Protein backbone atom coordinates (compact mmCIF):
# COMPACT_ATOMS: atom_id res chain seq x y z
CA UNK A 1 0.00 0.00 0.00
CA UNK A 2 2.48 2.66 1.18
CA UNK A 3 6.15 1.86 0.61
CA UNK A 4 7.75 4.94 2.20
CA UNK A 5 6.17 7.21 4.81
CA UNK A 6 7.43 10.71 5.61
CA UNK A 7 6.88 12.00 9.14
CA UNK A 8 7.93 15.59 9.82
CA UNK A 9 8.71 16.33 13.44
CA UNK A 10 9.64 19.37 15.47
CA UNK A 11 10.19 17.37 18.65
CA UNK A 12 6.94 18.62 20.22
CA UNK A 13 4.33 16.53 22.00
CA UNK A 14 1.90 17.07 19.13
CA UNK A 15 4.35 15.89 16.48
CA UNK A 16 5.13 12.95 18.77
CA UNK A 17 1.59 11.73 18.17
CA UNK A 18 2.24 11.77 14.43
CA UNK A 19 5.56 9.98 14.94
CA UNK A 20 3.98 7.20 17.00
CA UNK A 21 1.20 6.76 14.44
CA UNK A 22 3.65 6.75 11.52
CA UNK A 23 5.83 4.11 13.18
CA UNK A 24 2.84 1.91 13.96
CA UNK A 25 1.50 2.28 10.43
CA UNK A 26 4.92 1.58 8.87
CA UNK A 27 5.34 -1.53 11.04
CA UNK A 28 1.94 -2.89 10.04
CA UNK A 29 2.44 -2.17 6.34
CA UNK A 30 6.11 -3.12 6.13
CA UNK A 31 6.92 0.41 4.98
CA UNK A 32 10.10 2.41 5.33
CA UNK A 33 9.98 5.59 7.43
CA UNK A 34 11.65 8.91 6.68
CA UNK A 35 11.82 11.24 9.70
CA UNK A 36 12.22 14.92 8.76
CA UNK A 37 13.16 18.00 10.77
CA UNK A 38 13.22 21.41 9.11
CA UNK A 39 15.73 23.62 10.92
CA UNK A 40 15.15 27.35 10.53
CA UNK A 41 17.68 29.74 9.07
CA UNK A 42 18.81 32.71 11.09
CA UNK A 43 17.23 35.99 9.89
CA UNK A 44 19.62 37.82 7.60
CA UNK A 45 17.88 41.15 7.23
CA UNK A 46 16.53 43.70 9.65
CA UNK A 47 13.01 43.18 8.29
CA UNK A 48 13.21 39.45 8.99
CA UNK A 49 14.33 40.01 12.58
CA UNK A 50 18.10 40.15 12.31
CA UNK A 51 19.61 41.82 15.37
CA UNK A 52 23.08 42.22 13.90
CA UNK A 53 24.90 39.20 15.33
CA UNK A 54 28.39 38.51 13.99
CA UNK A 55 28.50 35.92 11.19
CA UNK A 56 30.26 33.43 13.50
CA UNK A 57 27.42 33.71 16.03
CA UNK A 58 24.84 33.21 13.28
CA UNK A 59 26.66 30.08 12.09
CA UNK A 60 26.86 28.75 15.67
CA UNK A 61 23.14 29.39 16.21
CA UNK A 62 22.16 27.67 12.96
CA UNK A 63 24.37 24.69 13.87
CA UNK A 64 22.66 24.43 17.28
CA UNK A 65 19.26 24.40 15.57
CA UNK A 66 20.40 21.76 13.07
CA UNK A 67 21.93 19.65 15.87
CA UNK A 68 18.62 19.84 17.79
CA UNK A 69 16.84 18.66 14.66
CA UNK A 70 19.31 15.84 14.11
CA UNK A 71 18.74 14.63 17.67
CA UNK A 72 14.97 14.71 17.12
CA UNK A 73 15.03 12.68 13.89
CA UNK A 74 17.66 10.29 15.25
CA UNK A 75 15.30 9.56 18.16
CA UNK A 76 12.45 8.90 15.71
CA UNK A 77 14.64 6.60 13.61
CA UNK A 78 15.78 4.71 16.73
CA UNK A 79 12.17 4.24 17.90
CA UNK A 80 11.23 3.01 14.43
CA UNK A 81 14.06 0.48 14.39
CA UNK A 82 12.94 -0.86 17.79
CA UNK A 83 9.54 -1.45 16.17
CA UNK A 84 11.22 -3.29 13.29
CA UNK A 85 10.84 -0.43 10.82
CA UNK A 86 13.63 0.61 8.50
CA UNK A 87 14.09 4.37 8.98
CA UNK A 88 16.12 7.33 7.76
CA UNK A 89 16.73 10.60 9.57
CA UNK A 90 16.77 13.76 7.44
CA UNK A 91 17.43 17.38 8.45
CA UNK A 92 16.81 20.24 6.05
CA UNK A 93 17.58 23.89 6.67
CA UNK A 94 14.90 26.31 5.48
CA UNK A 95 12.40 28.89 6.63
CA UNK A 96 9.80 27.41 4.30
CA UNK A 97 8.66 24.42 6.34
CA UNK A 98 5.77 23.21 4.20
CA UNK A 99 7.76 23.58 0.99
CA UNK A 100 10.60 21.62 2.61
CA UNK A 101 8.20 18.85 3.62
CA UNK A 102 6.91 18.64 0.06
CA UNK A 103 10.46 18.65 -1.36
CA UNK A 104 11.54 15.91 1.07
CA UNK A 105 8.52 13.78 0.15
CA UNK A 106 9.43 14.07 -3.52
CA UNK A 107 13.18 13.59 -3.09
CA UNK A 108 12.73 10.52 -0.86
CA UNK A 109 9.94 9.11 -3.04
CA UNK A 110 7.47 9.01 -0.17
CA UNK A 111 3.92 7.99 -0.96
CA UNK A 112 2.36 9.14 2.32
CA UNK A 113 2.98 12.03 4.71
CA UNK A 114 1.88 11.67 8.34
CA UNK A 115 1.80 14.95 10.24
CA UNK A 116 0.12 16.73 13.09
CA UNK A 117 -2.02 19.84 13.08
CA UNK A 118 -2.98 22.18 15.88
CA UNK A 119 -6.44 22.49 14.32
CA UNK A 120 -6.52 26.26 14.62
CA UNK A 121 -9.54 28.02 13.22
CA UNK A 122 -10.61 31.52 12.35
CA UNK A 123 -8.27 34.42 13.04
CA UNK A 124 -5.61 32.24 14.70
CA UNK A 125 -5.30 30.19 11.52
CA UNK A 126 -5.08 33.29 9.35
CA UNK A 127 -2.48 34.96 11.57
CA UNK A 128 -0.37 31.91 12.34
CA UNK A 129 -0.81 30.07 9.05
CA UNK A 130 -0.87 26.34 8.70
CA UNK A 131 2.04 24.28 7.44
CA UNK A 132 -0.27 21.26 7.37
CA UNK A 133 -2.82 23.10 5.23
CA UNK A 134 -0.08 24.10 2.79
CA UNK A 135 1.14 20.49 2.52
CA UNK A 136 -2.44 19.29 2.01
CA UNK A 137 -3.24 21.77 -0.73
CA UNK A 138 0.09 21.83 -2.59
CA UNK A 139 1.28 18.24 -2.29
CA UNK A 140 0.91 15.36 -4.68
CA UNK A 141 0.92 12.57 -2.09
CA UNK A 142 -1.76 11.63 0.45
CA UNK A 143 -1.47 13.26 3.87
CA UNK A 144 -2.69 11.71 7.11
CA UNK A 145 -3.38 14.55 9.55
CA UNK A 146 -3.54 13.97 13.31
CA UNK A 147 -4.81 16.38 15.96
TrEMBL record:
Gene3D superfamilies: HUPs. InterPro entries: Rossmann-like_a/b/a_fold, Universal_stress_UspA, UspA. This is Universal stress protein. Pfam families: Usp. It comes from Caenimonas terrae. The lineage of its organism: Bacteria, Pseudomonadati, Pseudomonadota, Betaproteobacteria, Burkholderiales. Belongs to the universal stress protein A family. SUPFAM superfamilies: Adenine nucleotide alpha hydrolases-like (SSF52402). Residues 1-147 form the UspA domain.
Amino acid sequence: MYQRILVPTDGSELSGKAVRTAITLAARLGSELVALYVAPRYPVSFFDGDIGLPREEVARTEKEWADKGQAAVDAVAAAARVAGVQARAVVMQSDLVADSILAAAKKNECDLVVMASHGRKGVARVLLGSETQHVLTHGEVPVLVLR
